[in-house]
Amino acid sequence: MKRLTDLTYGIIGLGIMGGSLAKAIRLNILSRTNSTGRIFACNRSTACLVQAENEGVVDKTFTTDQVSQMLPECDVVFVCLYPHATLDFLEVNKNNFKSGAIVTDISGVKGIFEKRLPEILRPDVDFIIGHPMAGGEKEGYANSKAEFFIGRNYILIPQNYNKEDDLNLMKLLINEMGFTRITITDCDTHDYKIGFTSQLCHVIASALVESAGDEQITAFGGGSFEDLTRIAMINAPLWTELFISNKEKLTYHIEEFAKRIDQFKNLIQNEDSKGLNELLEDVRQKRIRMGSVKTVEKKNNGDLSR
Amino acid sequence: MKRLTDLTYGIIGLGIMGGSLAKAIRLNILSRTNSTGRIFACNRSTACLVQAENEGVVDKTFTTDQVSQMLPECDVVFVCLYPHATLDFLEVNKNNFKSGAIVTDISGVKGIFEKRLPEILRPDVDFIIGHPMAGGEKEGYANSKAEFFIGRNYILIPQNYNKEDDLNLMKLLINEMGFTRITITDCDTHDYKIGFTSQLCHVIASALVESAGDEQITAFGGGSFEDLTRIAMINAPLWTELFISNKEKLTYHIEEFAKRIDQFKNLIQNEDSKGLNELLEDVRQKRIRMGSVKTVEKKNNGDLSR
């Protein structure tokens, strides 16, 4: 298997995710002695490229026009664009990838990938569908950091055409970047479950902010409203695309959630103390059993994890 | 005005809130040189009383049967019981309070106080309606801490019978305990706004946990679900009482929220990218303007704040 320390990594889109991936690779992999690896980055606007190069995070930068010079050099390419833009990028740059390269994405919806990928793929380029489950309410390279992935999940969706060696390299890379857990699944399950844990939560947070009649209402808060709506500092174009790309599964989850909200409303309206108490006790027990992704034991990455 | 360092404080109910109040008073007020003040505590079960006395947090403890010996000594009494139990306690112990004492509560609903208090009150005991806006998902004295109130709101609901000196003493005490902001309001406004920022949020978090079909779903999470449902590790009997005691205002908020959820569902179902993008942009701007209770500038408490 190739050595992670000797590869050339390409980052397409140097925002919060692309930037954090670059920083995690720099810190945890390429800072080792005898490493010969490099990080190349391409971005539409150049300010973040200059910053990342000055900070020593990336070795060489490329504008969008220059990407055809960058891709033939890259052994592993992270395409960190919006979902449809990722697929468009793969299509346009089909002939630019290095033979034998691993190409991967970070998209929050996968159904559209399963549909379009077969037409786009080249047999000698291994596209691995992935989804690093990390994010911040603030966008952009300026908010990226190497520690972003510590304690987080990475979802991988292997396809029958993926080479085993490439999947193993990808898993090793994910682990070295600081992720705690790799979850293997298929596109349909991904979209169903992410529709619940991520997209539904963003819809709820957004609806809650919209239903606040008074923007000064946090003067009466104990922190619950802030906790529930932190993710509502939302990147509107991205989430519009994610919601609509996963329309059927997401609306199913919204409807199920609305039924539960209605159940609570009825118990309260009927002053059904016994029923409400039982339901809340069930909630408590369920929530405790569900635990927290953040308490999952961190794998020991050796002395390189900081 | 009386000196905070020389008062005898009584805590009725030494759970997470009562315990944190005791610890904050001990740390920030009674640890000063020349302080002659004391903290007395009463609780139904005795384990926490023993612990608090051993830890030097309280000076003297009382079982429920002994409360009539405790109250006549206390200058400031925090009744940290459930809402209806607080009112019952005030009624039963009406004749036990020290003349000139300040008595206050921590209840999350206030409408029931406005209704029942006038019959219960003694003219020489000043009852100040209050609500410290802090809480944790874990109950009990074991989870209390002095730092619990730092950066938090305290709501005060002065009544026309409250003495100005007592209100000023209470405000000083709140400030010294570490709270960042005191919000003055009336019972109706309190219940309306807390119905939104606190109770609605707990209903939403609970409904979200209940609508999770699969308890392993956090394996697919990036933290959003955990953030939205942390408060769902809920104290069922307490919140049953809070929800039902504020039934009308809470069901109004639930209905308004449900309308917003429905609005999102329709935009997604109709693939209305433009409308959804505009709505999410509005959410983002609103949420940014709302800021965070935690970023409110902390008042300088002098060298006693730690």
Topology:
Two copies of one chain form a homodimer.
Chain A: E1 8-12, H1 16-30, E2 38-43, H2 47-54, E3 60-63, H3 67-70, E4 76-79, H4 83-92, E5 102-105, H5 111-120, E6 126-133, E7 153-157, H6 164-177, E8 181-184, H7 187-210, H8 224-229, H9 236-245, H10 247-269, H11 273-290
Parallel strand pairs in A: 1-2, 1-4, 2-3, 4-5, 5-6, 7-8
Antiparallel strand pairs in A: 6-7
Could you give a quick summary of the protein structure above?
The structure is a homodimer of 306-residue chains. Chain A has 306 residues and is of the alpha/beta class.
Largest interface: A-B, 95 and 95 residues
Main pleated-sheet profile of chain A: 8 strands, mixed
**Count of helical regions of chain A:** 11
- Please state the CA-atom Rg of chain A, rounded to the nearest Å: 21 Å
Number of strands of chain A: 8
Strand content of chain A: 5-15%
Strand order of the largest sheet of chain A: 3-2-1-4-5-6-7-8
Alpha-beta classification of chain A: alpha/beta
Low-confidence stretches of chain A: 293-306
Order of SSEs of chain A, N→C?
EHEHEHEHEHEEHEHHHHH
Distance from N terminus to C terminus of chain A (CA atoms, Å) equals 25 Å
Q: In percent, how helical is the residue content of chain A?
A: 40-55%
Multimerization status? homodimer
Mean pLDDT reading of chain A? 92
Described by the principal axes of the CA atoms, the overall outline of chain A is elongated
Write up this protein.
2 copies of one chain form a homodimer. Chain A has an 8-stranded mixed β-sheet with strand order 3-2-1-4-5-6-7-8. Chain A contains 11 helices and 8 strands. Residues 293-306 of chain A have low confidence and may be disordered. In chain A, helix 4 runs parallel beside helix 5 (111-120) and helix 7 (187-210) crosses helix 10 (247-269). Chain A is elongated, with a radius of gyration of 21 Å. Chain A has 306 residues and is of the alpha/beta class. In chain A, strand 2 (38-43), helix 2 and strand 3 (60-63) form a beta-alpha-beta unit. The two termini of chain A are 25 Å apart. Chains A and B meet through helix 7, helix 8, helix 9, helix 10 and helix 11 of A and helix 7, helix 8, helix 9, helix 10 and helix 11 of B.
